[in-house]
Amino acid sequence: MKIATWNVNSVRTRLVQVTHWLQENQVDVLCLQETKVVDESFPRSSFTDLGYETYIYGQKSYNGVALISRSPLSEVSMSFGAILPESIVGDLDEQKRVITGVLDGVRVVNLYVPNGSAIDSDKYIYKLHWLKVLREYLQALLQQSSSLLVCGDFNIALEDIDIHDPKNRSKQVMATDAEREALRNVLSLGLSDAFRKFTQEGGNFSWWDYRTGAFRRNAGWRIDHHYVTPDLYEQAVSCTIDTTPRHLTQPSDHTPVVVEL
DNA sequence: ATGGCGAGAGGATCTCGA
Q1: How far, in Å, CA of A19 to CA of A42, rounded?
Q2: Considering the entire predicted model, what is its pTM?
């Protein structure tokens, strides 16, 4: 089973690139983030024409996630509120960032973690709170299923080797101690980084800033991840970053990460 | 040290991303 995660930065702008990639890379589930489109306007037929099922959860202009699956998924749900009580979720579901479904006994969770903007901003506080609620959400899912694959754009580089230039990282959003601690607290549920089963070296990134020629310089960050429970970690046979789409003209600033179980 | 680029909304120039 192959699962891919890709923040496409607008599914409509990237539609040709995404469908082409899907034809070249026969993944079972493609997890999209930042689709940036309401459900009524999601380009479903481009995917159904290729034989894929679409499960979408979008909003106007911002955020939005989708599962593109070769086989029908079961137990599909969107939002924290589908699993957790309103008293815990509060208003977090106003931003569409969570979708999940089950394929062959594996629960796939597709996340678009908040960016956080800047330290000391309200959005940074929001991000840390969101990660606390994420832990509750995943804990609830783990009570239903022991095989969990949590992937997406986490907007966090967990280790210094996940950043091209880690100096000053303590002041940089996506790399602060508080963000890393919040993510490690999530992973303490029993989730491990599938990519690090196979690759220990730095210099492997999944996002490069559009500005300053960051991709040419490989000045990137590894912030798109596949975190899996021990059974799936054992089953994983590869986890790779496909930089091919990032070379295209008018690319997303992220590139796909693929895990094979 | 700062800003760089790109997308959406809307119809000039904002906000937002990371």
Answers
A1: 13
A2: 0.98
- Residue type (1 letter), A154: F
CATH number at residue A230: 3.60.10.10
The residues facing A111 across adjacent strands are: A98, A152
Q: What is the mean pLDDT of chain A?
A: 97
The total of structural domains in chain A comes to 1
Place of tokens 């506080």: A125
Using the structure, give the distance in angstroms from the CA atom of A121 to the C1' atom of B13, rounded to a whole number. Answer: 24
Q: Is the CB of A199 under 7 A from strand B?
A: no
Q: Retrieve residue A177's tokens.
A: 């101690």
Segment A102-124, tens digit of pLDDT:
999 999 999 999 999 999 899 99
Name the nucleotide with the smallest C1'–CA separation from A250: B6
Residue A174 Cα to chain centre, angstroms: 14
- First-to-last CA distance in chain A? 5
Q: What is the residue range of A133's domain?
A: 2-260
Distant-in-sequence, close-in-space partners of A220: CB < 8 Å, separation ≥ 6? A164, A205, A206, A207, A208, A214
pLDDT of residue A120: 87
Residue A223 Cβ under 7 A from any strand B atom: yes
How is residue A3 written in tokens?
Answer: 């699962």
* CA–C1' A16–B13 (A): 29
User: ∠ CA(A28), CA(A34), CA(A37), 5° rounding?
Assistant: 100
